[in-house]
Specification:
Blueprint (H helix, E strand, L loop, with lengths): L2 E17 L2 E15 L2 E8 L8 H9 L12 H10 L5 H19 L3 H4 L11 E4 L4 H10 L6 E5 L5 H9 L6 E4 L7 H13 L2 E5 L7 H10 L4 E3 L18 E5 H4 L2 H13 L3 E5 L5 H8 L7 E2 L12 E2 L2 E3 L2 E3 L9 E2 L1
Parallel strand pairs: 4-5, 5-6, 6-7, 7-8, 8-9, 9-10, 10-11
Antiparallel strand pairs: 1-2, 2-3, 12-15, 13-14
Helix pairs in contact: 1-3, 2-3, 5-6, 7-8
The structure holds magnesium ion.
Length: 339
């Protein structure tokens, strides 16, 4: 019989992290385990405040999950449909169960999920490393701290003098940059001007430049922008993918938004079938959820899987970043061991 266990776990950030919505120095999380016949599958819910979930809401949701009605952990479609149907929303709580179930089943098979999915670890992409917001001086310092470790950096704009920030970053690195505006611009003409200027600065991709529901304006911008435009906040789950065809160049899939690995797998396939590129993102998470997402990474176009690198109390070891590239391990399930 499968047994679900869970406990709160506070992630400590190495640096205060700032995006357009605010700053924080910790991220509340919930760790999940599914025990079954001597095996343990690990999962995790990470809840940045802007997604509306909390330790209380996640644990309240998990208390309703009764896995004892399922005899076979491999009936994942049945189990996860049941979990999804318990209540609307709660995507991080659902992702925690999904990840633990994938870890468990992968361990029962004895293979990591990228192999079960038929993916080649060599095809895993390089990841961007996200430089949190701050004054141009602080951002410059953060860039210098990671000099030589990554092939591409991601910077957060939309909360002040964007051009001063980019100039400051450019004064200390020539690496390609991706830019995440987190819905921070509110004028498509300004967005197009900025995109053109950013392209001249060696920026290669623009993430969520406009508010999430401004699909007409995002489509207008995508058609004219010299940079590919990716949707993040505009897309949460599988059902959101279809309406973004022709609106943006690609979508950012995150396990905590989409309820986990099973739905993420479906989203990657649907997006590619619709001609959309795919980026794989994460929240501030331990190596548990980041390694789970990394299992999908050989099939995506961009990866921003640095969440575990931002915390100082990671209880797991899993996916590694070497020379900026995602290196999957051969450990079964989601590829983690306790640190
Ligand atoms: Mg984003």
């Amino acid at each position: 019989m499968m047994q679900l266990r869970f406990y709160p776990y506070i992630l400590k950030l190495s640096h205060e992290f700032t995006v357009a919505a605010g700053s924080r120095s910790i991220t509340p999380g919930v760790q999940v385990e599914i025990g079954y016949e001597g095996f343990t599958g690990y999962g995790e819910a990470s809840m940045p405040p802007y997604l509306g979930e909390s330790v209380e809401s996640v644990t309240a949701f998990l208390r309703q999950v009764d896995l004892s009605q399922f005899k076979d952990p491999f009936c994942m479609e049945d189990i996860l449909r049941y979990v999804d149907g318990i209540a609307p929303g709660n995507t991080a709580a659902k992702a925690a169960v999904d990840i633990a179930l994938h870890d468990l089943t992968g361990k029962l098979i004895g293979l990591p999920w990228y192999k079960i999915w038929g993916l080649n670890a060599v095809s895993a992409p390089y990841t961007t490393y996200t430089i949190g917001m701050g004054s141009p001086e602080v951002v410059k310092e953060k860039v210098l701290e990671v000099a030589g470790r990554f092939r591409m950096l991601k910077i957060k704009l939309g909360n002040g003098d964007d051009r001063a920030l980019v100039r400051s970053v450019r004064s200390v690195t020539s690496l390609p940059l991706t830019v995440d505006v987190n819905q921070g611009w509110h004028d498509k003409y300004k967005a197009l001007d900025e995109a053109a200027w950013l392209a001249e600065q060696g920026v290669v991709m623009l993430e969520q430049p406009l508010p999430k529901d401004w699909l007409d304006d995002l489509g207008w911008l995508t058609e004219r922008s010299p940079l590919p435009v990716f949707a993040d906040e505009s897309v949460q789950r599988l059902v959101d993918v279809q309406r973004l065809k022709g609106v943006v160049s690609g979508i950012n899939i995150k396990l905590m938004k989409c309820t986990g690995m099973r739905e993420a797998w479906k989203m990657v396939n649907l997006a590619h079938a619709l001609g959309l590129k795919v980026m794989l993102g994460c929240m501030t998470e331990t190596s548990c959820a980041v390694s789970a997402a990394a299992q999908l990474s050989p099939m995506v176009d961009h990866a921003d899987l640095d969440g575990n690198l931002l915390i100082s109390n990671d209880p797991f070891r899993g996916v590694q970043i070497k020379g900026g590239k995602i290196v999957l391990t051969s450990a079964p399930g989601i590829g983690i061991v306790e640190a």
